[in-house]
Amino acid sequence: MKVLIIGLGAIGSLMAYALSKDKLISRIGVVIKDPSVAPKLRKEGVKFHFDPPPKDLPEHYRGTRKTIDPSVRYFIPDDDFFSVQQALTEVRDWDIIVLAVKAYDVIFLARDIAKFYKPKKSYSLLLVQNGWGTELEILEIFKPEEVIVASITIPVEHLGPYYFKVYDYSKKGIAISPVSWENKFIRDLYLALRKSGTNIQLTRDWRAQKLSKLLLNIIANATSAITGLLPSELFTHNEIVEIEKRQVNELITVLNKLKLPIVYLPGYMVPLIASAFRSLPVPILKTILLKMGSKGRGEKAPSLLEDLRRGKRESEIDWLNGAVVKLASELGLKAPVNEKLTQLVKEVYNTRKHLSVEELAAAISS
């Protein structure tokens, strides 16, 4: 299979690396924004530091850079392109196109693909975004059998240009599901990832997969961006744990109304996590969250805070807590905590000023 990665950030780079390790993938191309970095990328590749070093992690089969450090690996693409149009017009036989960009950019890229790509054969889009909603936008343009949905539970921290730290690669992993089981590439994609040593899971229902991942996504994400605190700091406050409990329970109510199961994801017993949020009192839940807050993440900030720290002006909040609000409204339900968190994250992105824990608690209770 030939794979094109659009977006060589943390998740796009990780997907490229994982796919590069198996011979079922014959070619990997990437779209990069800055042509000036192409010579360095071709020579040195993308660097990954694994913590802890995974067991039996093979070097990839192409563009290999040897290293004596078992925790360091590299990915060097077969081709690089400077625009989506160039990638899709110069090569007409991509099998899988990975949209590894932020949720707010997905629909624009999808329109470009539909406009510029005249393939010689069928192909699939692989969506790897956090949250909920990009899939519905894509399905307004592409057929269900052309779309594969993935949820990545491997934490990846951006350390520098094309340099990433990857936590718990062996224990965490990737869940994939086709929107339609008539998809022609789901089997080979699953096999390529499994044979490469990635902890890969094939889920039956893409909606259950994505909404279960959304449950993980919203924990300590909006609250972290609003306060500027990491989960290990957030979860020392009972007020924050109470907010987390309420926002997660609003999503669980939506899932129950949709009659969708909460499913296990690689490295995460999501049904048990949901049960803890539903039934445990704050003091006990606090102890569990403190253990979860730092385990396998190191000092990696949740996505909304990480983007804020990197100076981004646009956030994915509408596809995270905002998605819970939208789903609840469509079902005749309310999600007031998620609605307030959505509003506050937008304000923080606009003002670049964090709230204290006390200010956040007061805003939620008002």
Q: Structural class of the helix and strand makeup?
A: alpha/beta
Radius of gyration: 20 Å
Uncertain runs are none
The CATH architecture name of the largest domain reads 3-Layer(aba) Sandwich
Biggest sheet overview: 8 strands, mixed
| Beta-strand fraction estimate | 15-25%
Give the topology:
Blueprint: E1 2-6, H1 10-19, E2 27-31, H2 38-44, E3 46-51, E4 72-75, E5 79-81, H3 84-90, E6 96-99, H4 103-116, E7 124-127, H5 134-138, E8 147-152, E9 156-160, E10 163-167, E11 174-178, H6 186-195, E12 200-202, H7 206-218, H8 222-227, H9 231-234, H10 238-258, H11 270-279, H12 282-294, H13 303-309, H14 321-330, H15 336-351, H16 357-365
Parallel strand pairs: 1-2, 1-6, 2-5, 3-10, 6-7, 7-8, 11-12
Antiparallel strand pairs: 3-4, 8-11, 9-10
Helix pairs in contact: 3-4, 7-10, 10-12, 10-14, 14-15
What would you note in describing this structure?
By secondary structure, the protein is an alpha/beta fold. The protein folds into 2 domains: 2-202, NAD(P)-binding Rossmann-like Domain (Rossmann fold); 211-365, N-(1-d-carboxylethyl)-l-norvaline Dehydrogenase, domain 2. The protein has helices at residues 10-19, 38-44, 84-90, 103-116, 134-138, 186-195, 206-218, 222-227, 231-234, 238-258, 270-279, 282-294, 303-309, 321-330, 336-351, 357-365; strands at residues 2-6, 27-31, 46-51, 72-75, 79-81, 96-99, 124-127, 147-152, 156-160, 163-167, 174-178, 200-202. The strands form 2 sheets. The protein has an 8-stranded mixed sheet, sandwiched between helices. A 4-stranded mixed sheet has the order 4-3-10-9. Helix 7 packs antiparallel against helix 10, helix 10 crosses helix 14 (321-330) and helix 14 runs antiparallel to helix 15 (336-351). It is globular and about 55 Å long. The N and C termini lie far apart (54 Å).
